[in-house]
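If you are new to this repository, start here. Below is one unmodified record pulled from the training split, so you can see the exact layout before writing a loader.
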Amino acid sequence: MPKTIHSKDYLLVIERLKKARIESDLTQAQVADKLNKPQSFVSKAELGERRLDVMELKKFADIYEKDINFFIK
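And here is the target side for that same chain:
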């Protein structure tokens, strides 16, 4: 069974994750501070090196003031 972290659908999620951060005019470090995580957490999430669970994705959506559907549709 293929790893879903590299699926076409998941690649779209991480592409939109980075797009939302840029549109919000925030750096990875600023987002990490808001999440109480290291900057590497945000970097790995945006690079697809770390898979996000739904609650983590919701936190990103809240920071970027986006509906969670923005990332998954």
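Two things worth knowing about this chain: The chain has one domain: 4-72. Residues 8-23 form the longest helix (16 residues).
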